[in-house]
Amino acid sequence: MAVDYAVIVLYLAGMLAMGWWGMRRAKSKSDFLVAGRRLGPVMYSGTMAAIVLGGASTIGGVGLGYQYGLSGAWMVFTIGLGLLALSVFFSARIARLKVYTVSEMLDLRYGGSAGIISGVVMWAYTLMLAVTSTIAYATIFDVLFGMDRTLSIVLGGAIVVAYSTLGGMWSITLTDMVQFVVKTIGVLLLLLPLAVFKAGGFAAMKAQLPDDYFAPLGIGGQTVFTYVLIYSFGMLIGQDIWQRVFTARGDKVARLGGTAAGTYCLVYALAGAVIGTAAKVLYPHLGSPDDAFATIVKDALPVGVRGLVLAAALSAVMSTSSGALIACATVANNDIWARVKRVAALRSRPAAGESADTGRAPGAEHTGDGSGAGAHDDASGTGAHHAAHDEAHDEVRGNRVFILLMGLAVIVIAIALNNVVEALTLAYNVLVGGLLVPILGGLLWKRGNAAGALASVAVGGLTVIGLMISLGVLANEPIYYGLIASLVAYVAVSLATEPTDPQVLTAWRARLAGRPDGAADEDGPEGDDPEDDEAGDTSVAVARVLSPFPVTGRA
């Protein structure tokens, strides 16, 4: 076991070292939150695969294979299908928006009045996702060291919080890439063939298990359909996934890199189910299906290999945990706290208004990435440079503080929470039931408006929550009826109310097309002509108040 311990300790030390290295790369808000939007195809596809394949996909995927056979692959398979759909149909236009959060996208599309509610929903989802990922440390460290549950959660959570706080998305990208390689070697290249060999090969596995273990729909058609609704659609709208799309260097990287990651997920899904099926042959009477992964690793693998495979499981948990943590902190800072500060500032300055010549609210000269987009003409170049540097430093520091605070909250909740499955199901149900329709509607249907989006979030979310209370969190009906109610509310209210302001739609289309005239670009004011500004438009004024980045109303 000493060799196994050494492998794990070296792995954990390497994660912290990369966090320190990433801190030196994170010089601006864009660097810290989206890795400067410059990841190439290899880094992008590896990190995208790492974040979607977490502890549930690895330990839980093997457990489903133990319980249902090859059809246990469907949960992770639907995650891969969702990632493929996102990459092929939506990733290019999402990457062009140059925003940081899903709620900022809704602000751009609907004129600034839908972001706060969606921000709260997305924050709750990412928080619970981070919590459930953090709880998995208890299982892994118990297998490794026989460590107490609370101490395991604190140790694993502290390492993730440390490297995420230090370097933000740069640190997470580097660690995720290493974690992707470790998972590939540990699960696909080592555990999979060794498990099948120990079980006697596929012929012996088929001879000893019921035929249902090899049926494509042995897990049940309704279960597969529910997985599609929750996980495939969840991939389309989750902040943790979108934030990785924002790191892509361009449209092509987002599309092709995401397609490669989605395809990898399909292979990983089948591998987990096969490993679980082999474990059923080797250990037919385990107390819980989720014990299958730890049992086969402890009993069937040689020293050294065992440590590497456990490092793979640890890497799976850490990649999802860190991705959810930075997503949670980004939403809390940009979508909730920034709006609270803006409303407080407006209330403290009731006499302050928009400047008559540009129609901008005070302080609207800052763009989404925090670079100066409206510097005074008489400012010296040196002074402007120092001001921009100080502002970027403050924004990075502010986001570090939020990652630290959210990380501490995640650790505390993880220690107190017991039912992981219900917590994760609750998070996904509220996310999909409340936000799927207004997000996809905003991307696909130009008649959808802010009133319809707000109604959709409220009706869909409340329907899901109400049915989970009455029928149980794990019931299938809440997500079915929640989505139907959300869609009906979105369409009905959008058609019954005024369409989105044409100026907002024009700016939205320009951003989707990647044109700098849609809104201020993150690198500065391209084509900034005061004559292009339109003052007095109500929807634009609302957007300025509610959005964490300015909306200038340019066509």
UniProtKB/TrEMBL annotation:
Per the UniProt entry, the signal peptide is none
- Give me the segments passing through the membrane: 6-23, 44-66, 72-95, 116-140, 152-172, 184-204, 224-242, 263-283, 303-332, 401-420, 426-445, 452-473, 479-497
Biased composition, Acidic residues: where in the chain? 519-536
Q: Where in the cell is it found?
A: Membrane
**Keywords assigned by UniProt, alphabetized:** Membrane, Transmembrane, Transmembrane helix, Transport
Superkingdom to which the source organism belongs: Bacteria
Pfam families from the UniProt entry: SSF (PF00474)
- Predominant localisation class: membrane
Q: What residue spans carry the region label Disordered?
A: 351-392, 515-539
Lipid bilayer topology: Multi-pass membrane protein
Q: Record's family?
A: Belongs to the sodium:solute symporter (SSF) (TC 2.A.21) family.
PANTHER family from the xrefs?
SODIUM-SOLUTE SYMPORTER-RELATED, SODIUM/PROLINE SYMPORTER-RELATED
What is the official name of this protein in its record?
Sodium:solute symporter
